[in-house]
Amino acid sequence: MSEDLFASIDALLARPRPVEDLPVPAERERLRKAGDYTQEELAAALRTRRETIVRWEAGTTEPRPPKREVYIRFLATLALEHGTVEPAEWLRRAQAAGLVRPLDPAPAPEAAVVVPAPAAVPQPAPAPAAPAASPAVPLTRPEPARAAAAAAPPGAAAVAGADYDRGPGGDPALHPPVPCERCGRAVAYRVGGRPLHLGGWCAPAPAGAPADAAPVPQAAAADPVVERHTELTAAAGPSRAALEALARHPNIAATASPTALTAAPKPAPAAVSPEPAASVAPVAAPRQGAPVAGPAAAPSRSVASRPAAGSSRARKVAAKRAAAAEGPSDWEQAAAARFPAGPLAVLDVAPTGRGLVAYLADGTQAPTAPSGRTVAAVVEWALEVKLGSPRLHRHGKDGDALVVVTDAALAELGLPPMGRDEKKEFVQRLGQLPKTHKAVKALEKAGWQLTQRGLGPWARIYRTPEDGRRQCVQLCIPAWGALPTRDWSAVPDSLDAPGLARLLGTYAKRVLTPRGSTAVSGLELVTALRPPTRAVRTDTGWTSGPVEGSRPKDAFDAAPPEVPDVHPLAQDREVGGELVTEAWDWHRDLTDEEAAAPFAVGLDVNMAFLAAAGRLTLPLSGPVHELNPLFDPKIPGSWLVDLSGIDTDPLLPSPFAPDGERPTGPAWYSTVKVAYAIELGARPQPLEGWLRHEHGPYLDPWHKRLRAAYLDTMAALGVPLKLADTDPVAFLDAMADLKQGDPAELAVLTAIKQTAKGTIGKMRERPRGHGYKMGERWAALDRPTWDPLMRALVIDTATVNLHRKLRRMAAQTGLHAIAILSDCAVFASPGPGALDILTQPDGTLTTSLRLGVSPGLVKHEGSRPMPEIAEMLADDVNPARHIKTGGQVSADE
Questions:
Q1: Max Cα separation, the chain?
Q2: How many other CB atoms sit within 10 Å of the CB of residue 811?
Q3: Where are the alpha helices (DSSP H) in 97-229?
Q4: Which SS3 state, helix, strand or coil, does residue 346 take?
Q5: Is 332 strand, coil or helix?
Q6: What residues form DSSP beta bridges with 696?
Q7: DSSP character string of 237-273
Q8: How far apart are CA 402 and CA 388, in angstroms?
Q9: How far is residue 844's CA from residue 358's CA, in Å, rounded to a whole number?
């Protein structure tokens, strides 16, 4: 019996151990974060799901071939840049197997700095006589192969087919780094006792430098002093760039000996004094009734320092700049080449009064124009000159041509003006011309078809595709209300056809070719940047497949608490069972000190909804109902929870209700608000949950494009990005004079604001039309972008962001908002200027509400005398709605 047990144990001990070719799970996550990559980005590159990456980094599952080798390369490449922790045997195996992509030499990151000994001066040293294992020596970073095999130095053929010397365990043995006999670069491996690179890692020695001249530290075999992680460098001795980086490092330059930072007779650059850990708040001018002009009185804000050259953020920025310098990719160039005439054209009557003339997106006259006087002739001309817009995503679709018809051209094409006679005029209430109209019949006779919207303000005219080619043109008819004032309020009535073409062309270039109202265009932008499907080749042909990070093509119903009351799922819902998410509409009574203030000043958050959408985790799948779920802030959803026990500042609105009142019992809240309740110190226990287990930053590309469009338009109007940081007074003056800018740019600015706001509103679009009956489905429910939870998460994020800033504002300045409408907050102030409330008692500018043009920063909304504000409050009127002189809050609210 005992002999059998001993034999069993011997067999167990003799069993080969599994190969450790991956780092420990925690190190996998650390390396990914060190490289500034998200789980979504890694999952997309590996063509898998984010949940798979989560399980790999948690250690619950392991990757399988062929993705395992690719994942190892990803981690090993990051380990060579950022260092790794022991055990590092997996990295040695990856290097020996050739899985690590060659990297150019780079300065060691701050997280893996090797501090040289004070007296260690690099000196040339011959290769050791006999190889000796030295596991304490840092791993070498492979160099890229830069020489062809034909140009290999003498002796290369002698090692053809050879392998590295291996240790007792069968792994390549590590030795003190010495110059390679072929290239002169450092190598920690041996081939037959000789220091050589294998597997294409060799790189030629610098011109004029013998292979045996590479410096080697005297104490090469000594253990280096490593900060936090094992150092992974590829130098027999410190390179000049590494020594210069060490000389500049604030933690080393002050303690290292000058001789330890010497690589050559050339002196190292002077040490740079370290930057402060946090920027010091700038000193502002004393509080006063109005801002004083002149640079001497202008408070300034210190500009944030640039990222360190070796940081992951710096590398990411450099990669983006390099990609921008290289220009568009092949598919982008091919897409743009398909539309040489641009995205749109504006048709007008020729100056001679005979025939039509077309103006392109830049305002120039097109070389040709439609020869016929029918809508069909216009459509065929637009396709002939190749109007259209290239796709915004590799798997997206090109944008259809847009033809704008002026009032004069409308009559030239035989189309009626807008009026009330249904037989002779276009009736806005009907939305389209009757199907019996001669213009509609002429289109059908020419082989063209209309969508269900018919021939209306935004008519889409198409033909059955031939040879797979899409043939579709969209008409825009301003005379029929295609450009409403709510979307394009700043369009001057006197704008001519070339000016209108430039205006719409600017919007098309910065945002998207208009597809209807700005809200409709916003939804089109979302799907253009996040297409739901892509073409996938299979054994039997092509089919449609999902796009990583996008919502599926087929819409799914939202959860019962999330839908509006007219939705079929809401018909059996209990009273109070709805997820109520709206922007703040709140005001309170004045304190005695506030009532004594002479003014009230309003501050408005720029594009608050747009700012909230950046990197926001949104649902990509349908809801799953769970009872007593464990709250997870990473899962978007709706949670039934009691937040009535949370104490907040009584002078500020509650962030958990649109009216700012304290909750009274269990209610439905989005993930954002429950997470904020935990931030405020609560420990809520959800009773129910409708959770979305597939999620991601769905609106992030939409946020980036609209943000860039907004900033470009503001810069064109004379408000550059950094103006508020360098001169706050100049920024306030520029914003005050904004309405005096170019009318066309102002119209584009209004359209961009309405696009951002309308897109979020469309995610919970209610039924329209007189024929709708309660409880029936409506057309918007079939859109993949219809999801009230996405709207709730964006609005709640904007609300939480503002509440967090108001808390910091009260802590830094002692000022509390007295009224809020959406994201316009009103404060009692000693003067009418924004700086009167943004200046702290010590004379520095507050960092809670920052002036600036970027989405999420604030601008001066308006000022009113406090007696007028008191009258509004007495009448139960929200002063934030009227903080502008006799007006409303800005259009983006």
A1: 113
A2: 11
A3: none
A4: strand
A5: helix
A6: 618
A7: S--HHHHHHHHH-HHHHTTS-GGGG-SSSSPPPPPPP
A8: 7
A9: 56
- Model pTM? 0.68
Q: Per the structure block, which two tokens stand in for 140?
A: 């070498």
- Angstrom distances, CA of residue 303 to CA of 278, 281, 690, 851: 11, 11, 44, 13
φ/ψ (deg, to 5) at 357: -135, 145
Take residue 355 and report the two structure tokens written for it. 């025939």
Q: Which long-range contacts (CB under 8 A, 24 or more apart) does 346-349 make?
A: 346/403, 346/404, 346/406, 346/497, 346/498, 346/500, 346/501, 346/504, 347/378, 347/403, 347/404, 347/405, 347/406, 347/409, 347/497, 348/406, 348/408, 348/409, 348/496, 348/497, 349/406, 349/408, 349/409, 349/412
Cα gap 188→203, rounded to integer Å: 15
Interval 511-558: pLDDT, tens: 999 999 999 999 999 999 999 999 888 888 888 899 999 999 999 999
CB 515 within 8 A of CB 522: no
* CB distance 834 to 601 below 8 Å: yes
* Three-state secondary structure call for residue 828: strand
In the structure encoding, which two tokens stand for residue 210, read together? 């013998």
Cα–Cα distance list, 814 to 664, 709, 838 (Å): 28, 36, 11
Q: Give DSSP secondary structure letters for 552-615.
A: PSS-----TTTS-TTSGGGTTPPTT-S------EEE-PPPHHHHTSSEEEEEEETTHHHHHHTT
Q: What are phi and psi of 340, to 5 degrees?
A: -65, -20
Calpha distance 57→24 (Å, rounded): 8
Residue 464: in which H helix or E strand, if any? strand 460-466
Instruction: List, for residues 753-772, the tens digit of each pLDDT value.
Output: 999 999 999 999 999 877 78
DSSP reduced 3-state for 463: strand
Judge contact between 857 and 883, C-beta under 8 A. no
For 265, 620, 621, the CA distances from 669, given in Å and listed in that order, are 67, 19, 19
Supply φ then ψ for residue 459, to 5 degrees.
Answer: -80, 135
Phi, psi of 518 (to 5 degrees): -65, -30
Which tens digit of pLDDT belongs to each residue from 431-455? Answer: 999 999 999 999 999 999 999 989 9
Q: CA end-to-end span of the chain, whole Å?
A: 83
Q: Which residues of 43-72 are buried (b: 16+ CB within 10 A; e: fewer)?
A: bbebebbbebbeebbeeeeebeeeeeeebb
Strands 469-476 and 401-405: parallel
Query: In the numeric block, which tokens belong to residue 798?
Result: 């904007």
DSSP reduced 3-state for 211:
helix
User: What tokens were used for 159?
Assistant: 């090692």
Cβ neighbours for 711, distance < 8 A, ≥ 6 positions apart: 721, 853, 854
> Do residues 368 and 355 touch, judged by C-beta distance below 8 A?
no
Residues of the chain falling short of pLDDT 50: 103-161, 199-201, 203-298, 300-306, 888-893
Please check whether residue 180 is in contact with residue 187, taking contact to mean a CB–CB distance below 8 angstroms: yes
Name the token pair of 464: 């059955």
Q: Which two tokens stand for residue 775?
A: 């409880």
Distance CA(250)–CA(57), nearest Å, equals: 33
Helices vs. strands in the chain: H and E counts, helices first? 25, 27
Please count the other Cβ atoms lying within 10 Å of the Cβ belonging to residue 737.
12
